[in-house]
Every structure is written in structure tokens, then in C-alpha cells.
């Protein structure tokens, strides 16, 4: 039992704890309204260790950040509690018309967008630059070629490489979440 704990402690220090400063800064920058940062990080550590005990995590840093993001988002949602007295002060006609599916879809789309941006952030610099120009800015291959002073074939190669790397990121991300 003692040997297993030593192995777990070593794995935790080498694969998880070493990212704490970066994780803390990332959460603070991404979710500045969160006040219970230590609680979120601790909860993420617990989830990561539970998962690691069940099945080894292939990409611990990515998994840690994904778990932390999910816990942070849940924390923000829970903190948006409105008292019944506040609700009584609002007239029904003042409320926006939304249905549950629209809200869920919006939240899901927001989560998916953040995963896409995380995937793009992992790309090599030139590949990332070209993919952003093409997919997010909507520039044509010709426009990208002219802006960067490279051939259209090179632009196409970087786009292909970027898409492949993003797909690999998504596959690894889903695998770590057990989907």
C-alpha cells in the first residue's frame, strides 16, 4: 500500500502539481469572477486522481485543464443564483423569451468553442496563423498567400496539417473525458 501511495504521489507531482501556477493563472485570466480559486483547483485535483486510479490518463495536463474548466463553469453557474425576492421584483414581460434547449445549446456551443480555441492554441505558430486567417477570419487561400508571401500550396499544406492536429486534439480530449 505504501509503495502504491509513493507511485501516486510521484505521478501527481510530476504530471499535475507542476502545472499549478499555470493552471491558477489560466483560470484567473479566463474566469476573473471566480473567487474560490483554491476550491476549484482542489476539486480538479481530486477528479484527476479519481480518474487516474481507474484508468491511466494519457495526457494529464490537458485532462487537468479540461476538468478545471468544467468545475469553474459549474461554479459560475451555481453562483448565478437569484433569490425569490429578486424574482418577485421582475415582471414577466421584462424577461427574455428563451427555452431550455436554446440555453443548453448556447452553453454547449460556448464549451465547444473554447475547446476549439484550445486546440488551435496547440498548433505550431505558422500553422495556427494560417488556420486562424482561413477559418476564423474567412480569408481565401489566395488572400492568405498574398498576406504571408507564401505559395497557395504551402497555405493548403498548413491548413491540412492544422486540421489533422486539431482532430487529434479533439480525439485525445474526448478520450480523456471517457466519451
Question: Would you kindly provide a written description of the structure presented here, covering whatever features stand out?
Answer:
With 179 residues, the protein is an all-alpha fold. It folds into two domains: 1-81; 94-179, Orthogonal Bundle (Arc Repressor Mutant, subunit A). Helices cover 76% and strands 0% of the residues.
Descriptive key words:
179 residues; mainly alpha; Arc Repressor Mutant, subunit A; 9 helices
Oligomer: single chain
Q: What's the CATH H-level homologous superfamily of the largest domain?
A: Winged helix-like DNA-binding domain superfamily/Winged helix DNA-binding domain
Q: What coarse outline follows from CA principal-axis ratios?
A: elongated
Biggest sheet features: none
What helical percentage do the residues reach?
over 70%
Question: What is the chain-wise order of helices and strands?
Answer: HHHHHHHHH
Distance between the termini: 31 Å
CATH topology of the largest domain: Arc Repressor Mutant, subunit A
Q: Please report the first level of CATH classification, the CATH class of the largest domain.
A: Mainly Alpha
Number of domains: 2
Q: What would you say about this model in short?
A:
By secondary structure, the protein is mostly helical. It has helices at residues 2-15, 20-30, 37-54, 60-79, 84-88, 100-121, 125-136, 141-148, 152-177.
